[in-house]
Amino acid sequence: MLKDVLNQVEDKMQKTLEVLRKEYSSMRAGRANPAILEKIKVDYYGALTPLNQLANISAPEPRLLTVQPWDKSLLSDIEKAILKSDLGLNPTNDGNILRIAIPQLTEERRQELVKAAKKKAEESKVGIRNIRRDANERIKKMEKNKELTEDDAKKQQEEIQKITDKYIKEADNIFAIKEKEIMEV
Question: What is the pTM of this model?
């Protein structure tokens, strides 16, 4: 039962960090990264379909993305979807492929992105702390129901705190890497 609690804490905190990494991968950092187009949905026969299911997205150069749809008739719909997105990208359409030049970020835009990245990291850390709180409540309930001794409950709470500290530190490290990436010129 105790191992279950610790394993669940570890799993949930790991998933929280995976969500943070995924959020960061779709955050623009001045360098061409196909993941920034992941959230774009295109109207495909009346259904909003993720762009990566309709086209091949690649980054042949550090500041260039290419989008090659499998169905050429979708080219203008894909172009419109990219223009409507909040990414601030302007694709050029040559009839076969979309080329998207990734503009250099301004200092002001970099600061905004760092602020947004920090907010996402803080949200992850709050999530990690909530997982800790829930686990500690379960431990206290087990102690109250005489399933655990007071000493065992203390040890478990200390173990949960160690796991929490580890994942909070990891969230900070992930943020630091993203901040460095955003601030690179």
Answer: 0.70
Write out the DSSP string of the chain.
-HHHHHHHHHHHHHHHHHHHHHHHHTS--SS--GGGGTT-EEEETTEEEEGGGTEEEEEEETTEEEEEESSGGGHHHHHHHHHHSTT---EEE-SS-EEEE-PPPPHHHHHHHHHHHHHHHHHHHHHHHHHHHHHHHHHHHHHHTTSS-HHHHHHHHHHHHHHHHHHHHHHHHHHHHHHHHHH--
Integer distance in angstroms from the first to the last C-alpha of the chain?
51
Listed residue (69, 66, 64, 65) closest to 53, CA to CA = 69
pLDDT reported for residue 5? 82
* Average model confidence (pLDDT) across the chain: 86
Contact (Cβ atoms closer than 8 angstroms) between residue 131 and residue 9: yes
Report CA 7 to chain centroid distance, whole Å: 23
